[in-house]
Design goal:
It contains 12 helices and 11 strands.
Amino acid sequence: MLEFAWPWIALLLPLPWLLRLLLPPADSGEAALRVTFLDELENLGGKRARPRLPGWRRQAPFALLWLLLVLAAARPQWLGEPLPLPSSGRDLLLAVDVSGSMDYRDMHWQGETVSRLTLVQRLFGEFVAGRSGDRIGLILFGSQAYLQAPLTFDRQSVRQWLEEAVVGIAGKNTAIGDAIGLAVKRLRQRPADSRVLVLITDGANTGGEVAPLTAARLAAGEGVTLYTIGIGADAEQAGAVGLYGLNPGLDLDEPLLRELAAVTGGQYFRARSQDELRAIAETLDRLQPVLQTPTTVYRATPLYPWPLAAAVLLSLLLVAHELWPHGPPSLRRRRP
């Protein structure tokens, strides 16, 4: 099926004729002498007068050129067979803590000691890539919360943005309430039965302008289900202590995370290791999808290069005709 992406461009078709009618004729400012017997003078000199074409025949090539340019600007495209786009999942926002404590290297991945953020990136990157049919978005929060990726079906881009997250990019503190508030702002425009927020943090709320419980109650009022994940090894697992000799795992405010999830009808998960975090991702991956309005897309093949190429070719022919009205110079010299 043929379709024009910008059909309103066709309104420009009469523009050259309107300009000719509205603008005054060009004046060179030089005196001119009108000679009625110019053709006879050319014949006496042995040159053949160039035939004068009627007005419409002289304007036809330029009218065709303008038509081709307008046609190319309207961006014609051929729409193929309709392709169903899976849209039976949820609108899911992933809020990831990127505060300074997420740089603690107390987690393990395939025999290698890695930071908490690195483990989240590797495991939840797979989680994001596997959420076929869901709209996925990404929030990064530290001292402030930022929307890194809006809700989209492009899971690969969201995964890439998650893998490129850096500790401290949003500040060193942990603004859990601000992250929840930003998620509610983005999810409230979506269907009420499909709003999900997965929040991953390793600490307590130490920054931000919105209290976490206030934000959670607001989320519950907007029908947002909150799943909280506390990440970080226990003291005996970490084998190390944090600043001032304190175990970084003690910073995690588990009672608050449990209450936040309970207020919205969600669940709290504790991730102390790679296996536990993978199990949590698999549990979240089994969330029952809520049917939404099916979406149909068409594969569009652009056709504008064809009229554009024809316009370029016609322009070259017109230029050649003006420069060499009787053929190239080499051929004119050989004529008797």
